Description:
The complex is a heterodimer of chains A (294) and B (125). With 294 residues, chain A is an alpha/beta fold. Chain A folds into two domains: 5-205, 3-Layer(aba) Sandwich (Rossmann fold), CATH 3.40.50.300; 217-288, 2-Layer Sandwich (Alpha-Beta Plaits). Chain A has helices spanning 43-50, 72-75, 93-103, 109-118, 132-146, 162-178, 190-193, 214-220, 228-237, 262-270, 280-288; strands at 5-14, 17-27, 32-36, 58-63, 78-81, 150-154, 182-187, 199-204, 207-213, 221-227, 241-248, 251-257, 274-277. In chain A, the strands form three sheets. Chain A has a six-stranded mixed beta sheet with strand order 5-6-7-3-8-9, with helices on both faces. In chain A, strands 11-12-10-13 form a four-stranded antiparallel beta sheet, sandwiched between helices. Chain A is elongated and about 65 Å long. By secondary structure, chain B is mainly alpha-helical. Chain B has a two-stranded antiparallel ribbon with strand order 1-2. In chain B, helix 1 (8-22) packs across helix 3 and helix 2 (34-41) crosses helix 3 (45-57). The model of chain B has no long low-confidence stretch (mean pLDDT 90). Chain A binds chain B through residues 31-32, 166, 169-170, 173-174, 176-178, 195-198, 214-215, 218-219, 277-280, and chain B through 2, 4-9, 35, 38-47.
Amino acid sequence: MSLPVSVRDLQLRYGDTVALDRLSFDLAAGKIYGLLGRNGSGKTSLLSVLAAFRRASGGTVLVDGEDPFENARVTRRVCLIRDNVDAEETDRVGGVLDLAARLRPDWDADYAGRLIKQFDLPLRKRVSGLSRGGRSALAVTLGLATRAPLTIFDESYLGLDAPSRYAFYQELVADYAEHPRTIILSTHLIEEVANLFEEVLIIDRGRLLVHEETDTLRQRGATITGEAGAVDAFVTGHGLEALGEKRLGGTKAVTTYGLLTDGQRREAAGAGLDIAPVGLQDLFIHLTAAGGRR
Amino acid sequence: MFDDRSPIYQQIAEKIKDEILTGALKEDEQVMSTNQYASFYRINPATAAKGFQQLVDEGVLYKKRGIGMFVSAQAREQLRGQRRERFFTEVVDAMIAEAQMIGIPLDEVVARIAAVRIPSGEVER
Lengths: 294, 125
């Protein structure tokens, strides 16, 4: 089971502050989405609205065709995992997992057991006694074993150390392949997880900058390097969107955004220009840097 | 594991082709399922499936319904033919251009090749 998401002109305000500014997008059911944005860009606000933790100030949000806010039919099938566990500090780890097992219709107890072993979770400990890594491990165990048709991880795995994070990515892919569902991962550690995403959404200052298939987005970025005059002539001559530039003596490197045709690539090679791909992380930095794309 | 030079699905396809060329994957041998592959390399299963589908379209792999994907009987020969065509333009010509740029006489390059040449019995396989 997977749930689709449809968002139109979504706005969220906290007093005078606009956290989300007329966002519109559709997420088809059953894919893994990456939600990228700088700190304070509105990632958590957006995910909180999708999971009905907050009510939108304007616009519409539909999860499986219904408004999720105060809608138990939807919310029991949506799981938002934040960077901390939503539990009382005095609860024991085992108790938190038992509660999820009772509340969640798709909970898989055997799978939860395997994850508890994998992440070495101390069932008898209180949540307050867990290390940062332990809290994250509990959070991702809840997120995976809930098997919610819409599962959202809001940077919830960032407290894990590198080996545990890789174990989490591996578990996520393996379990998603067996039990497809709609998954949204928000992160700013892009390099590590970029290959998990089928589609990527980038938000900046509450607005949607990009929503694209990961492979297509990857091909949109290029760094064109060569003699400064030739680089400028090529970039302006083809009307390419420049995201940033660097100069070293007579050499210039311009990062552009837009698919280059084979003809343009041949022309650049003929003019002695080097065209290099731009990784998703670098593309993200260029797109969201101060004074970046609007 | 994968880089940004080309779409990931193409890199997956290339990696499997390399395994067939080196003989790590034999003809009519079953390849990993796309889900196993995705989990192993921590990539999106849809991306892995796209890479495998490209190999099916090219005739390098074939599907057996409900069982999985296998290496085609003529896959290795087909791939060797394609790589041979690219070898002189992509490897030899590039080497000659580099040698000329840095001033190494081609005679020296030829002498070097003669010196490191593998005994002919091992070349023909």
